[in-house]
Amino acid sequence: MIKIIVLDDKNFCVKEVANKEIPCSSIIVIYPIEFVSDSVLEENIPKMVSVVREYIKESESYLMFKNMIGNARWDSEKLKYGDMAYKHQKKADELAEKMNKGISPYFWYVGKVSEDIVFNEISRKVDYAVCLEKIER
């Protein structure tokens, strides 16, 4: 079964992030249309884009080492993988801070996409979506 996510182009703005290094890995940026031409967001998007690929890499490395802990046989392996997972999580947290600097109470949520995305009646297969979310307090 193919799942499709349809984004309403009246409410959201979608930008594709060009990837020169890894053409098969695609990322889209999604944010409410009310933020189009917002100077704070327009200033933040290039900062976020500059680190999002590294953030994704660190997050995936963290998950890989975390899974390896569960499959490890020896305590020494578990400690080693735990240390590696911690280092990648710490680096991902630092990158998230850089991505989100100056946009509080909003933040960028990075998620792996398993469905096709339809926007402006065009279907796209993307690997990751970076969505602007509001922190609920």
Could you please describe the fold and organization of this structure?
With 137 residues, the protein is α/β, with parallel strands linked by helices. It has one domain. Helix content is 42%, strand content 27%. The protein has helices spanning 39-71, 75-99; strands at residues 4-6, 12-17, 27-32, 106-112, 116-119, 122-125, 128-134. The strands form two sheets. Strands 2-3-7-4 form a four-stranded mixed β-sheet, with helices on one face. A hairpin with a 2-residue loop joins strand 5 (116-119) and strand 6 (122-125). The longest helix has 33 residues, at 39-71. The model has no long low-confidence stretch (mean pLDDT 87).
Short summary:
It contains two helices and seven strands; from the N terminus they run E-E-E-H-H-E-E-E-E. It has helices at residues 39-71, 75-99; strands at 4-6, 12-17, 27-32, 106-112, 116-119, 122-125, 128-134.
Order of helices and strands: EEEHHEEEE
Counted up, domains total 1
Our estimate of the beta-strand percent is 25-35%
Largest sheet: 4 strands, mixed
Low-confidence stretches: none
Count of distinct strands: 7
Calculate the mean pLDDT score and round it: 87
- What does the oligomeric state look like here? single chain
Radius of gyration: 17 Å
Shape: globular
Alpha-beta content class: alpha/beta
> How many angstroms does the end-to-end distance come to?
37 Å
- Read across the widest sheet, the strand sequence of neighbours is 2-3-7-4
Determine the fraction of residues in helical runs and give it as a percent range: 40-55%
Counting H and I runs of at least 4 residues, what is the number of helices? 2
